[in-house]
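User: Sequence in, structure out. Go.
Assistant: Echoing your sequence, followed by the structure tokens.
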Amino acid sequence: MPSDGLADRRLHPASILLGIDLRQTIQALIFPLVAGFAAGGRVILVILAVFGVVALIGRTLAWQRFSFGFDGEVLRVEEGVLSRSHRALDVARIQQVEIDRGAVARLFGLAALRVETAGSSSEVEVELRVIPLADAEALRDELRRSKAAAGDAASEGEGEHALSPPPAESVLRVPLRHVVLASVTGARLLVFPAIVGVAFQFVGDAFSDWAAERAEDLVEGLLLGRGALDGFGWRLALLGVAATLVASVATAVVVGVLRDAGFRIERVGDDLSVTRGLLSTRSSVVPLRRVQKVEVHRNWLRRLLGFAAVRIHSAGGSGDADRRVTVPLLPERAIDDLLAEVLPGVAGIPALTAHPPAALRRTMFRWLRQAVLIGASAIIAWRYAPFGVPDVVPWLAGALLPLFAVLAVVEYRQLGHGLTARVVAARTGALSVVTSLAPVVKVQAASTRANPLQRRLGLIIVVAHVAGPGGDVVIADTGTERGHWLLDRLTEHAAEPVAPEVRPQVLVMGGPPATADEG
């Protein structure tokens, strides 16, 4: 039986205001505001006042007619003013429970609790926004206990250990300095070149007359070292670029700290509890059995510094943010320890099999094809464009060939894959290297494909189709014989809920595959 605190009750009165969806409110106000601006300022005030009074009355009635309760087996929610809705969620169907606390909610000791089920792929199944933090934590723990007890009763009978939640065991804590480092080495700073372009455009507009007279001298001075580059306008442009860079870095750091400060993962029984956030904190529970795929991301800068980011994809959730947990940054030496917690029975990234030399020819072809297309487009623009293009452009286009050739070699050296009795893994990338791992019990099907060039080179792509939103594991450009062996093994895994013991193979060039342990 549930405790008195989990009997049927209403949301906190503050939910009348805190439960408002700002996005829907803005969308609803667009047309009235446009009409009000057309009619005059006083009309806008009247429209806003009428809209506010009607919305407040509607929110108050909705709060009075909303109730929820949990009896130990079923979570029940009743809502609706004119049209009543009765919803019942069996505890066995619940996949994910989250506690979200915004800055205002934290100030008043409140929280929003979200409950996800296996079928809630497009929207939240139940959202209690907002309730006292103590009630949210009590309901989350009661759901966890009841779910564990139901699982125990189904397999071995209900035990005494299910009556109290298991203790939380710390899995990972990301210090603040690593959160900051993740912010300044992540993808957010890739927008800097676009911002610089906007800054240059602004400077050009502000000094249009000066730019029109000296544009050619500036371009030649910048690219060829000719011409005078002094002058107030050019110094202002450099100052604007520097200020934009500082602002970009500062913005990335602030956003990263607000979102990921205090990031920690704890293990509670068979669940992972993830908590993060500075002003607005978010706490979610991810069942380990729902983890579909794990990705280890290393861009070139983080590889130099010895760090990586890890994404954990799980089934359930109302959106990408709910189905994916991203560890902002951790040392590479800690990756295997985290994988051992997230993927039970997996000691870490398995030893990966290198791909045959023919794969280098295909990666070289793909990279040089891009270089030729980009270079040819630049040369055509230099030769036939109605506007002036600097003479250095053909030289820059030619420099793409050796640069892209180096990237092709880097990508080939990163290619690798592995298959053990518990996990299938693949690694790919050049500047940004991604290692994907999926439990073999999550593989639903397997397929292969090869284009004419791959068939000529004796290469094949193997795809392990993984259930859930995390995406497939793609093994690119492995040998044909090896690929068919992988296809057979993955098909066996897809046909059996429990994967058989598999000894991975290493392809011996010039002969059949030979078995060898890969870790």
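User: And one key feature?
Assistant: The first strand starts at residue 67 and ends at 70.
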